[in-house]
Amino acid sequence: MTQRSIADLKKGERAQILKFLQNDFAAKLHTLGLKPNETVEMVRLSPFGQAMYLKINDQFVALRKEEAHTVIIS
Amino acid sequence: MSQSNTNIALVGNPNSGKSSLFNHFTGLRQRIGNFPGVTVDKKLGTVKVADDIIQMIDLPGTYSLYPNSKDEKIVIDILTNPEDQNYPDCIIYVADVNNLDRHLLLATQIMDLKIPMILCLNMMDLAEQNEEVLTKKLKTRFGIPVICVSGKTKENLESIEQLISTFIKDGPKKFIRNEPFYTLSPLEKQLVEKKGEDNDYLSLLKAHHVDWLSHLTEVEKKSISEKSISLNFEKIKFQIQETLQRFNQFADISKLESGSNKNLKLSEKIDAFITHRVFGPILFFAIMFIMFQSIYAWSEWPMNLIDNAFASLGQLVQDNMADHWFRSLIVDGVIAGLGGILIFIPQITILFLLIAFLEEVGYMSRAVFMFDGIMRRFGLNGRSIVALVSSGACAIPAIMSTRTISNWKERLTTIMVAPLISCSARIPVYAVLVGFVVPSATVMGIFNAQGLVFMGLYLLGIVAALISAWVFKMVLKSEEPSFLMIELPQYKTPIWKNIFYTVKEKVTTFIVEAGKVIFVISIVLWFLASYGPSKKMELAEQNALTEAAAQSLNEDDTENLIASYKLESSYAGHLGKIIEPTIAPLGFDWKMGIALISSFAAREVFVGTMATIYSIGNTDDELTVREKMAGEINPVTKRPVYNMATSLSLLIFYVFALQCMSTLAVTKRETKSWKWPLIQFTYMGILAYLGSLIVYQLLS
């Protein structure tokens, strides 16, 4: 089965972060609270669909779809 | 009372609430300075603690010692350089207790730098649970003073003062943690060994940021770089390893904290509407619409007040000083120039107030989230929306606000197109000219025709900005990655004191930055308009006197006529006539030429210049100017000069042209080269010329 990333999450779906594909993104995402083993909830897409509104550990964070693609979930 | 040399810095993540603490402690004793060499604003103040007066500095918010933006870099630059004049003796670290784990990351990094620290858990008066348990736990774990405070309700802020005074009395020992949080890997150890008195983590950071730290000597840079290469030091990999290792050390504490949180749920509910796919953008435009409406509605009265005040002041000087060139300089140069700047304070204040309010409650990052996708298509970043909105007041603070955009190409593009958004300085010009384009009639029952043209001009500016951005996107090359990755902080009720200080700071910056240039240019303009080749000036005065006698004008009108004739013969008049052939295809005559030249300094000068040209005397009253302009007849065609074609052409010119020296100066400062302001001036000038040409040729 292919790997699923945060970008594949449906609205309201939750998943656990497994690993990060891109180091430069990962370094920044960690400081915003996206770390391995954290649970992510996909809250909604942006009005034009290119960005995602996520909930992680009681915080809200917005990511672009391609940034979300680099975060693999289990 | 003694002046102590103690420097205290407030440090924390963005949205940690540290500005509230800073405003509380320093109050009106705060001022804005500049960090040497960079344009990031430095917020400084003094605080009275027991018998000492200490310096307090509010450093820009940052998430870690691995910065993403220009604002954040300054923090690292200072904290890695004990020689820096701003290097703190002690740090008050402010952490939001609701997002404790993320906020503690930076705290542990700073503790590893061995800088004395007081850890303040800002309760934001939301989480009351386990206050004591948590403080105790962190105190034992970190070995430094930890206190719970509330920036909002001012709870426990006196404990901070007590701790500072202990620090001054007893020294830093109790405020430093000796055990490092991060254990360096063997490779990192090799990298930092034998570095004199620097601590390991400080040396490690120097290796990470060797490319841009300003205080490293060339020798140091070279030796660090060579060592990094020989050891094959992969920066990003170690940065990640360090970050995760730090998080692991307090994961158990922060987990304890996350639980039910009413405000979080409320924020989620609000966002279901505010960032909704359909309602979100509609609401955004509704907010913008109301915002600009209120700017016009609320600023009229204070603007008139300022206008009248300066007119009276001018009159007062006029009446009480002997007729001398010096009086003219004071009245027509200095006072008129100052009035020209200060008249915009009401509009700018209101706009900044509304923007600061939207930022303070947490709305702006939602706008960034919603519009990032669209902004990117045009080569901008979601964060550009903040700059573009601010541009509606004034391009200067807008350009300065682009510092949060880490990608250079996106930031540059935002800077380049921001001045196309109609700023408040264009309003008086639009107000004078719009009446010549359409009558003040009602369209479709509710809309004002002139209001619609106004809106059209604004839209034209926005569309032009987006298209230009797209062109820059195609032309500029960049390999640098672009990010959105933004925190959407919980909504909170605004703290008015914070808004007050933000607005005060921005308005002051505007007055100082723009004021300097406008002031100097007004004096230059005064000279150009008052002086000319002496023979011609004398001749002009005689002609005017003859003409006045022939028409048997009264004293005032004669004065005005002389002024008008003199202006034609002045250096400014000559300049206007020189450029007349160039601007004739746009429908402009030499008089408008003078206005264009003088507007180059600042477009709001237009109305004043028109007043002088049409010899109305010392007035900035838009209505009088407009009546006079309406009566202007073309000597050749015998028809009104300000017909629809000419007026619209002039309006289009003012929409596009970069007639603002201050903007050019700020662009130069922010891009660190004359290249970009020159390109900016040229491309906007071409847009203006072509736009006016097309409009005039089609309509006339």
Structural notes for this entry:
Chain A has 74 residues and is α+β, with helices and mostly antiparallel strands. Chain A has one domain (4-73): SH3 type barrels (Roll), CATH 2.30.30. The longest helix of chain A is centred in the middle third of the chain and has 9 residues, at 23-31. A 6-stranded antiparallel β-sheet of chain A has the order 1-6-2-3-4-5. Chain A starts with a strand and ends with a strand. In chain A, 18% of the residues lie in helices and 42% in strands. Among the domains of chain B are: 2-175, 3-Layer(aba) Sandwich (Rossmann fold), CATH 3.40.50.300; 186-257; 517-699, no CATH class. Chain B has helices at 18-26, 70-79, 100-112, 131-142, 157-170, 186-192, 200-208, 218-231, 235-257, 262-274, 279-320, 325-342, 345-361, 363-377, 384-391, 395-400, 408-417, 427-437, 449-475, 496-530, 534-550, 555-569, 571-583, 590-601, 605-613, 622-630, 644-656, 661-671, 675-699, and strands at residues 2-12, 30-34, 41-49, 52-58, 90-96, 117-122, 146-149, 442-443, 447-448, 486-488. Chain B has 700 residues and is of the alpha/beta class. The mean pLDDT of chain B is 85. In chain B, 44% of the residues are buried. The A-B interface holds A 23-33, 35-36, 43-51, 53, 55, 57-64, 67 and B 63-64, 66, 68, 98-99, 101-102, 105, 236-237, 239-240, 243-244, 247, 258, 261, 264, 267-268, 271-272, 275-278, 280-281, 365, 368-370, 372-374, 376, 382, 481, 483-490. Strand 5 (59-64) of chain A pairs antiparallel with strand 10 (486-488) of chain B.
Descriptive keywords:
heterodimer; A: 74 residues; alpha+beta; 6-stranded antiparallel β-sheet; 2 helices; B: 700 residues; alpha/beta; Rossmann fold; 7-stranded mixed β-sheet; two-stranded antiparallel ribbon; 8% strand
